[in-house]
Amino acid sequence: MRSHVNVLVRLLIAVVMLFCGPLSMAGPFPGWDYRTRVQFDNSTGIADLTDFPVLVTLDSSNFDFSRASADGSDVRFADSDGTVLSYELEKWNSAAGQAAVWVKVPQIDSASNVDFINMYYGNTGAADAQNAPDVWSNGYKGVWHLSSTTGTEPDSTGRHDGTVSGGPVSASGVIGQGRLFSNNGYISARSEDLGPGVSSLDAGDDISVTYWMKANPGNASYQRNLGKDQNHAAFGIETQRAGSADRMDLRIDTSGGLNQVKPIGNPSGNTAYDGDWHFIGFTLDTGTWRTFYDTDVTSASYNPGGGFSNTQPLYMGSNTGGGSKWSGTLDEFRFSDTVRSQAWMNAEYRSQSGQLAATAGTNLMAGLVAEYSHENAGNRLLDTSGNGYDAITGGGGGGVAFVSTAVPQGFDVGLGDTV
After folding, report:
1. What pLDDT score was predicted for residue 203?
2. pTM attached to this predicted model
3. Which among 299, 356, 361, 367 could bridge 351 via Cys, Cβ 3.0 to 4.6 Å?
């Protein structure tokens, strides 16, 4: 019944257009032909997510690439109320039918599966409008997708580009491309700010780090895939193989204690060297660390001493200075100078593994003035076209009355009531 109502509302508007002539539209992208809904499933989320970068993955099964520009330059995103959203194209390959896009979403409610945004496309004259630094402006100090094929790995925040040394090569990643390390190189990201504003990887006690790893067989004991320390002399952090065991450890060196080592995730369930992709993460909060291995979470205390801030570069694939080189593929490195919540870290895992966002139907936008969806009981009055013609309650029989003077302009078409 609800789907019939939705169709009815759209048809009524089309009839009005036929007899009353075209109405001016004030949606976010009136010159775009198509719109696809991106639905979020945060039903397992334990907290709201604010300004969260969501991964939108497209392929030929859920998106018609022939309707968009070949390079994705006409792609745009807007919230359900029409607010334009910042986004970054990590990958757009029309020929292969593959794309990976990061979108900064204002809010995704906890325990909810009804929130959504809209993706617009179908305007071949549109120029590229990416704004990667804004996508990653919520506490991120460095974001390396590791998808470059050159000697530089760009930092999407625009401030800490990585330099490739030795043999790391482009390889298939968990999201697009990653970097394959073969005990013969590393990537170092300078700690100082490379761009305007204040940004540094010299973070003190409050940080969060995440990345994906796929280990090759034959890694030696204690090989590192992350290092930012002062050669174990005073301050720093590292992630390393736990000796010859198949798990990963986090090591912290502070003035309060060198070589403070804890397992990442539950030791009995951490099989990071099984040849599969695994999500690795940790947060450090002035004496408390929390580690993440896929969906597993553990916490413990450490001696913070005077902190572990240092001016050394961040090394990926080795320890600081390029020693203890690692063997395997790394992808999607992130460094934040804030302590992310458990809900945030779990959402990062679910987003990056394709469990948070999915496309949910496409509409032809040409000529559309307004539309109203009754599928969401808390959002039935919203004009989901983004043109601003929200409805009000009070129609006959408890239905919905379309407003006679809508925002942003009059909608004087006499639709009356609907249910």
Report:
1. 72
2. 0.84
3. 356
